[in-house]
Amino acid sequence: MSGRPILATQAMRAAEQAAIDGGTPIETLMERAGAALAEAIIRYAGPQPTLLLCGPGNNGGDGYVAARHLAGRGVPVRVAAIAEPTTDAAKAARAAYEGAVEPLGDSMAPAKVMVDCLFGTGLKRPLDGDVHAQLVRLGEAAGLRIACDLPSGVDSDSGALFGPVPNFDMTVAFGALKPAHRLMPAMPACGRVVLADIGIDTGTDWVEIGPPQLPGLDPAGHKYTRGLVHCLAGKMPGAIALAAMAAARSGAGYVRISTSRPIDGLPAAIAQIDTADMSDERIGCILVGSGMGDIPQVLTLALTSKAPKVIDADGIGALGEPERLKGQNAIITPHAGEFETLFGTLPGNKVEQALEASRRSGAVVIYKGPDTLVASPDGRAGFAPPAPAWLASAGTGDVLAGIAAAMVARGLPAFEAACASVWLHGRAGELAGPHMVADDLAAAIPSALDLL
Ligand SMILES: NC(=O)C1=CN([C@@H]2O[C@H](COP(=O)(O)OP(=O)(O)OC[C@H]3O[C@@H](n4cnc5c(N)ncnc54)[C@H](O)[C@@H]3O)[C@@H](O)[C@H]2O)[C@H](O)CC1
Ligand SMILES: [K+]
């Protein structure tokens, strides 16, 4: 899967340790991090007066390194510290910075650019009241706010906030993104997230979902080899119609709907039939649940098929037991309410919950929300890149389910198909614009595909 790596704190520490064991000392990693931070500040803010706030740990150490680089390049720099450095690497970085270091307090004047190097992945509790007040005051007075690795006040692994955090314009992350960069409520506070390579091997189990690689068209192919999506209608045909439209616009070769009554307004290319042969081996993916309503027999019928499935909305509610999904090669697309209905209240943060749900059910889980996650039973996780808030409207979930079904029918494995659908859905939302309705979103999918 393409995409920027994401590491939780423990995995980040292990990756850092592996680099150290491999002969790269922590001071070198910090030097790379601080130099990258300085570079990002200059590129983003230009040579404006810059105030760096430094904490006691290695996040503060990165700040001292950045201050030295900025000063060396002629940027007017001031540094304020909340405490003396406590780690050897941060002490060395502090010693190598030749400028003055002021104590952080009420008398400190703001600067055009404020850089928060107070705490990163090591933050475990709320900031002291005074420190928080200064961060907010100096942040509000600055024209640009830049965070070193993470905004201080954010829990790196869960995205929870220990207290109110100023909104940053940019966050410069080191080695890998952290879950908080892509989880609510922290995500919007991070602003644009830039990733600096500091020479750490991160692996790719958890990634920010990037543009998908879709299989090319087979010149000898026909509509079935391009992928048949078989949709099962229920009580509210509008929802399955949207999903079917989205599947067709996502490049499925053939989309058909089993429905007991004709659905108005569908493109003629989408076939409507009043039978449902679930043993048809040409089916690339079954799509069930969107608008199904309280007809659980529709779900039961889908589960008799050997074909891969996307199970959405009412279909998730009708499952009852996650174990029913075992061996189904299914993608499920719950929002928070549907997730809880199926799995109960799982412990841990959103990533841990999504992964546990995926392990229990054996299904790929698209856990929807402003911070959509894709989880695979084998432990892989895809974090959605930021998507527009206007996607939160009726029918957009049906469109997502339709895209996912098309990706499966086109031959992608379940996890890759789910990630591809999340990426395309977000980009189609951007292209459709703030006044879109779900129909416009489905119509924008070809433009999103054109971005690839
Ligand atoms: N991971 C890497 O490869 C590299 C990371 N770098 C940077 O290091 C920080 C993480 O540094 P660390 O020293 O572990 O933690 P922090 O600086 O975030 O915190 C320091 C320390 O402070 C204590 N503490 C926690 N919460 C509070 C609080 N609310 N008030 C006061 N003190 C608190 C706690 O003991 C922490 O350990 C990472 O984000 C990167 O910026 C390296 O520089 C390069 C390699
Ligand atoms: K920080």
TrEMBL record:
<feature type="binding site">
    <location>
        <begin position="120"/>
        <end position="126"/>
    </location>
    <ligand>
        <name>(6S)-NADPHX</name>
    </ligand>
</feature>
<dbReference type="InterPro" id="IPR036652">
    <property type="entry name" value="YjeF_N_dom_sf"/>
</dbReference>
<feature type="binding site">
    <location>
        <position position="116"/>
    </location>
    <ligand>
        <name>K(+)</name>
    </ligand>
</feature>
<comment type="subunit">
    <text>Homotetramer.</text>
</comment>
<feature type="domain" description="YjeF N-terminal">
    <location>
        <begin position="12"/>
        <end position="206"/>
    </location>
</feature>
<dbReference type="GO" id="GO:0052856">
    <property type="term" value="F:NAD(P)HX epimerase activity"/>
</dbReference>
<feature type="binding site">
    <location>
        <position position="152"/>
    </location>
    <ligand>
        <name>K(+)</name>
    </ligand>
</feature>
<comment type="function">
    <text>Catalyzes the dehydration of the S-form of NAD(P)HX at the expense of ADP, which is converted to AMP. Together with NAD(P)HX epimerase, which catalyzes the epimerization of the S- and R-forms, the enzyme allows the repair of both epimers of NAD(P)HX, a damaged form of NAD(P)H that is a result of enzymatic or heat-dependent hydration.</text>
</comment>
<dbReference type="InterPro" id="IPR004443">
    <property type="entry name" value="YjeF_N_dom"/>
</dbReference>
<dbReference type="InterPro" id="IPR030677">
    <property type="entry name" value="Nnr"/>
</dbReference>
<feature type="domain" description="YjeF C-terminal">
    <location>
        <begin position="206"/>
        <end position="452"/>
    </location>
</feature>
<comment type="function">
    <text>Catalyzes the epimerization of the S- and R-forms of NAD(P)HX, a damaged form of NAD(P)H that is a result of enzymatic or heat-dependent hydration. This is a prerequisite for the S-specific NAD(P)H-hydrate dehydratase to allow the repair of both epimers of NAD(P)HX.</text>
</comment>
<dbReference type="GO" id="GO:0110051">
    <property type="term" value="P:metabolite repair"/>
</dbReference>
<keyword id="KW-0479">Metal-binding</keyword>
<dbReference type="GO" id="GO:0052855">
    <property type="term" value="F:ADP-dependent NAD(P)H-hydrate dehydratase activity"/>
</dbReference>
<feature type="binding site">
    <location>
        <begin position="58"/>
        <end position="62"/>
    </location>
    <ligand>
        <name>(6S)-NADPHX</name>
    </ligand>
</feature>
<keyword id="KW-0456">Lyase</keyword>
<keyword id="KW-0521">NADP</keyword>
<feature type="binding site">
    <location>
        <position position="291"/>
    </location>
    <ligand>
        <name>(6S)-NADPHX</name>
    </ligand>
</feature>
<protein>
    <recommendedName>
        <fullName>Bifunctional NAD(P)H-hydrate repair enzyme</fullName>
        <ecNumber>4.2.1.136</ecNumber>
        <ecNumber>5.1.99.6</ecNumber>
    </recommendedName>
</protein>
<dbReference type="GO" id="GO:0005524">
    <property type="term" value="F:ATP binding"/>
</dbReference>
<feature type="binding site">
    <location>
        <position position="59"/>
    </location>
    <ligand>
        <name>K(+)</name>
    </ligand>
</feature>
<dbReference type="GO" id="GO:0046496">
    <property type="term" value="P:nicotinamide nucleotide metabolic process"/>
</dbReference>
<feature type="binding site">
    <location>
        <position position="398"/>
    </location>
    <ligand>
        <name>(6S)-NADPHX</name>
    </ligand>
</feature>
<feature type="binding site">
    <location>
        <position position="149"/>
    </location>
    <ligand>
        <name>(6S)-NADPHX</name>
    </ligand>
</feature>
<comment type="similarity">
    <text>In the C-terminal section; belongs to the NnrD/CARKD family.</text>
</comment>
<dbReference type="GO" id="GO:0046872">
    <property type="term" value="F:metal ion binding"/>
</dbReference>
<dbReference type="Pfam" id="PF03853">
    <property type="entry name" value="YjeF_N"/>
</dbReference>
<dbReference type="InterPro" id="IPR000631">
    <property type="entry name" value="CARKD"/>
</dbReference>
<keyword id="KW-0413">Isomerase</keyword>
<feature type="binding site">
    <location>
        <position position="335"/>
    </location>
    <ligand>
        <name>(6S)-NADPHX</name>
    </ligand>
</feature>
<dbReference type="Pfam" id="PF01256">
    <property type="entry name" value="Carb_kinase"/>
</dbReference>
<feature type="binding site">
    <location>
        <position position="239"/>
    </location>
    <ligand>
        <name>(6S)-NADPHX</name>
    </ligand>
</feature>
<comment type="similarity">
    <text>Belongs to the NnrE/AIBP family.</text>
</comment>
<keyword id="KW-0511">Multifunctional enzyme</keyword>
<keyword id="KW-0630">Potassium</keyword>
<feature type="binding site">
    <location>
        <begin position="368"/>
        <end position="372"/>
    </location>
    <ligand>
        <name>AMP</name>
    </ligand>
</feature>
<dbReference type="InterPro" id="IPR029056">
    <property type="entry name" value="Ribokinase-like"/>
</dbReference>
<keyword id="KW-0067">ATP-binding</keyword>
<keyword id="KW-0520">NAD</keyword>
<feature type="binding site">
    <location>
        <position position="397"/>
    </location>
    <ligand>
        <name>AMP</name>
    </ligand>
</feature>
<keyword id="KW-0547">Nucleotide-binding</keyword>
